[in-house]
Structures are given as C-alpha cells and as structure tokens.
C-alpha cells in the first residue's frame, strides 16, 4: 500500500493530494491559502466532507506541520511513515531537467540557482521540500518540473532573436510552463486517438494562467509561454505578448519604474486590465452579458489571442489531428470553447457537437464525426502526474 502525497507550494499557498497508488485513488486533498497572514485558510476534503478553517499560519513550514497533524488527527493516515513518497511541483527547472528527478543536494542547488527565473515559486518549493523532509525523513522526495515537458523544443523555437550572449551567459530563452498539464492532456488525447505512431495535437490550457502547446508525436515542439509565464496569450491578470517598447514608453512618458511596469503586466493586465471588472472569466462574462462594453472587448481580445496560437501551431505541426481544452476556462466554459472554435471553424473545418459541448461532463469528444479536426475536453490532473513520477522514480 504505497501512499504518495503530491505537493504544490506556491508563494503563499500549499496545495496537496494524498494518493493510494495501488489504484491511484485520492485519499484526501486540499489547499492552505494566504500563508503569512493572520487569516490563512486551510481547506481539506476527506470522505466526501470539506473542512474549512481560518487561522494564522506564518510560514510554509507551519503549513506543512498543520497538514500532517491534521492527517493524523482525522486518522487519514495511522502514521506519517505510511507516506512513502512526496512529489513536489517545481515551476522552473531551466535547461537542467528534461524529466522529473529524485531530490538530492545537487537538485536542490539547481532549483535554488534558478530562483531568479521564478522568484515567487522556486524558493517556496524548497521551503516545502525541507519542511516535509524534516517531518517525514523516511519518505523519498521527487521534483516534477513545469518546464521539463518543453525541453524537447529545438533551439529555433526557444532562442530569442537578441544577442546570443544573453542565452549563453544569462540563460535567457523560452522555457514554457504548464508542462505537466500539457503532458497529461496530450497523452490522454493520444490514447483517445487509438495510440497512433504519429499525432499532431494542440493543447489549450486556459485558466487564470493560460498557455497553448503544439505536441507532435507526444513531444512539445512549441509553447506560448516564454522566459516567464508572462508571455503568450492574454490571461486573467497577465498581458501576454506585447511590443516591448511599451515598457520603455511607460517608464519615460508616464513616469513608472521598471518594477511597477512588470507588476502591472503580471497583476493588473489581461482580463482584469481591459474589463476593469475582474480577473475571473466568469465575472467578466457576466458583465459582458449585462452590456458592459469593456467586458465584451476583454473577452473578444482573449478569444483572438487564443486563436492566433491555434493558427500558428496548426501551421507548425503541418496540420492537426485534435485540439484539447483543459484547465478552469477550458474545462468549464462551454461558451468560451464554442466561441473560440467558431473563429477557426471555417479555416480548419471544425464542426462542434453543441450538445456534447454544453451538456457533457468530464473527458469527452465535442466535435462531430464530419469535423476535420477532433476536439476534446480533457480535465487536467497535474497531481496524478506528480504522484506517478514519484512512484516510478522511487520504485514504490
């Protein structure tokens, strides 16, 4: 009975899922939010019930101890030694890691070295790692990197057209993100296509953060996020691609400093920035339906940013067997899927099954048989990928 916990430590949060790996069932799951504040929120789901508590949780270390104490108090595990492996999501693995890795001193040093590329995340991942290592020294630990799936990109796709020394000396290149999700979803689609030797798939991971990836024969050949997750499509609060001269203009003409501009592009732009309503697609859509013109504009821009990458990757792949929608918007908004597909349906020969799109649930095909490209909805499961890699690498 191998129990493995998949952990995602963010800058102020700790998400978790505890798996029984014999059948890959979820024993418990939850999240600790607002770490570092007096009103931190601890949510845990177990046996069909959800327990929510608000209390001060100063650090990630205390968050880990609270979680593990709760597992014992609720008799979710009889002993912490029942947990044989801890799988840690790590946002930035740079060019060091083409796959998941057992965490040792060398892996720790590389994650720490790369913190300048993910300053909000990599330090938190290491804090989580040390906290679990101290609490359950008998459990093995594995790092699963968001960037690993995109290490199959060729230099012509990851090198930026700036002086080459910035790549060689400072590691400036496209790394991508959401790789664990893109891997999981593309593998699911390949299965649904009958496990062909060759396949051309576009995965649209659309949520508060969003990215698209072109997957050829199971490997990422290009992805929309770049050096950081700020690049690519418009997102909840991120601008996505824009003319970099805008940054200089805002500094020189508006009087902003660089940190203010980057904060604005990451936290105040996207759906929130254009609509003025919210970063949540549902809120913006409700406002648009009530006649808010800026909300309508925000949604229109969002859809067109997405189809620009669908078109780009259709060409890069030399055609497309399937498009898969996943993540918060991709999985849950029938309207978003329909409108995005309507914008490319004539060019790509896509025919949507409206009933499957609007009324279906879970993994499903939402295109009609006559559609030239199959379209799927595939709920992502990054935690399961983390748990599987942890089991495999630790031989559990």
From TrEMBL:
Residues reported to bind ATP: 15, 205-209, 280-282, 328-332
Reactions catalysed, as given in the entry: acetate + ATP = acetyl phosphate + ADP
A Pfam family hit: Acetate_kinase
Cofactor note: Mg(2+). Can also accept Mn(2+).
Pathway noted in the entry: Metabolic intermediate biosynthesis; acetyl-CoA biosynthesis; acetyl-CoA from acetate: step 1/2
UniProt entry keywords in alphabetical sequence: ATP-binding, Cytoplasm, Kinase, Magnesium, Metal-binding, Nucleotide-binding, Transferase
InterPro entries xref list: Ac/propionate_kinase, Aliphatic_acid_kin_short-chain, Aliphatic_acid_kinase_CS, ATPase_NBD
Domain of life: Bacteria
One Gene Ontology molecular-function label: kinase activity
Active site: 146 (proton donor/acceptor)
Site entry (Transition state stabilizer), positions: 178, 238
Chain sites annotated for binding substrate: 89
EC number in record: 2.7.2.1
UniProt cofactor(s): Mg(2+); Mn(2+)
Residues holding Mg(2+): 8, 382
UniProt subcellular location: Cytoplasm
Family to which this protein belongs: Belongs to the acetokinase family.
UniProt-listed NCBIfam families: ackA
The protein's assembly and partners: Homodimer.
General function of this protein: Catalyzes the formation of acetyl phosphate from acetate and ATP. Can also catalyze the reverse reaction.
Name of the featured protein: Acetate kinase
């Amino acid at each position: 009975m191998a129990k493995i916990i998949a952990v995602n430590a963010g800058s102020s949060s700790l998400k978790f899922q505890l798996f029984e790996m014999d059948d890959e069932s979820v024993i418990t799951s939850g999240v600790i939010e607002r770490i570092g504040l007096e009103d931190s929120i601890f949510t845990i789901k177990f046996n069909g019930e959800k327990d929510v508590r608000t209390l001060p949780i100063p650090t990630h270390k205390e968050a880990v101890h609270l979680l593990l104490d709760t597992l014992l108090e609720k008799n979710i595990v009889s002993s912490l030694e029942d947990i044989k492996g801890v799988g840690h999501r790590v946002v930035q693995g740079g060019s060091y890691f083409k796959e998941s890795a057992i965490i040792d001193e060398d892996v720790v040093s590389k994650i720490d070295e790369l913190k300048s590329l993910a300053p909000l995340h990599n330090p938190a991942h290491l804090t989580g790692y040390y906290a679990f290592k101290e609490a359950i020294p008998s459990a093995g630990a594995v790092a699963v990197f968001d960037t690993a799936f995109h290490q199959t990109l060729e230099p012509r796709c990851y090198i930026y057209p700036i002086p080459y020394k910035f790549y060689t000396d400072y590691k400036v290149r496209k790394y991508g993100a959401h790789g664990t999700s893109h891997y999981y979803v593309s593998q699911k689609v390949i299965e649904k296509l009958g496990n062909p030797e060759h396949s051309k798939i576009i995965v649209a991971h659309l949520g508060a953060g969003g990215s698209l990836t072109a997957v050829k024969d199971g490997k990422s050949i290009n992805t929309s996020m770049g050096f950081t997750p700020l690049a690519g499509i418009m997102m909840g609060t991120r601008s996505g691609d824009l003319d970099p001269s805008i940054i200089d203009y805002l500094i020189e003409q508006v009087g902003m400093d660089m940190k203010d501009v980057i904060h604005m592009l990451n936290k105040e732009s996207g759906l929130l920035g254009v609509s003025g309503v919210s970063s949540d697609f549902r809120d913006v859509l409700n406002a648009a339906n009530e006649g808010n013109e800026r909300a309508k504009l925000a949604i229109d821009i969002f859809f067109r940013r997405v189809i620009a990458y669908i078109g780009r990757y259709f060409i890069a792949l030399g055609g497309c067997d399937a498009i898969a929608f996943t993540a918060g918007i991709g999985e849950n908004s029938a309207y978003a899927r329909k409108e995005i597909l309507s914008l490319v349906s004539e060019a790509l020969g896509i025919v949507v099954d409206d009933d499957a799109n609007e009324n279906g649930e879970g993994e499903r095909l939402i295109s009609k048989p006559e559609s030239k490209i199959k379209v799927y909805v595939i709920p992502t499961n990054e935690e399961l990928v983390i748990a599987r890699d942890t089991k495999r690498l630790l031989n559990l």
